[in-house]
Specification:
With 170 residues, the protein is an all-alpha fold. It has helices at 2-18, 24-32, 38-45, 55-84, 88-112, 116-132, 147-169.
Length: 170
């Protein structure tokens, strides 16, 4: 499965890079179709304010939004932990998102230093952290554990940083 994911990313990057002249929406579509949530991905990339965005512009908005969203998620799960009390799944999730948040914060620094390869490497840490955050605990006030959606969004953000990061570093 890991080899399939690597092959899929490589083929997707090759596809996107082969489009010589693409308008912004085509580029957004090409990036987001490689993720598990096209609508969420498109919403993140739509926050780009550049009139004719480059891949670096798309990467900048992605790393910025990923840092903001991961900080919000870490705050959210930490608050639940403080208010609800301990539970093995909940504690694992808090610890996992501490790692995820640190990785996304480090990715911003690496982006600013144009160290894209190292930034891409951090996304493996994010994926690992999300995998640790099981959602087998109840969250008061929610019928469905909201961490299910937050984990999915975090995985999309990590995928976006990998995809666009590869394009920028190519």
């Amino acid at each position: 499965m890991k080899m399939c994911r690597i092959l899929s990313i490589f083929l997707a990057i090759t596809l996107v890079c082969s489009i010589a002249v693409a308008n912004t929406q085509q580029t957004v579509d090409a990036i987001c179709k490689q993720t598990i949530d096209i609508k969420f991905c498109s919403g993140i990339l739509a926050k780009n304010q550049a009139t004719s965005p480059s891949m670096k512009d798309f990467l900048k908005v992605t790393v910025t939004e990923a840092e903001r969203i991961s900080a919000d998620t870490y705050s959210f799960i930490s608050t639940i932990y403080r208010n609800v009390g301990s539970g093995p799944g909940l504690l694992k999730c808090v610890e996992a998102y501490a790692r995820v948040n640190a990785s996304f914060t480090n990715a911003v620094s690496l982006f600013n230093e144009e160290r894209y390869g190292e930034m891409i490497g951090l996304m493996h840490e994010v994926s690992y952290g999300v995998g640790i955050c099981t959602t087998d605990f109840n969250v008061p006030g929610y019928n469905i554990n909201p961490m299910i959606e937050k984990n999915k969004e975090t995985n999309v953000l990590a995928a976006m940083e990998k995809i666009i990061g590869h394009m920028v570093s190519s």
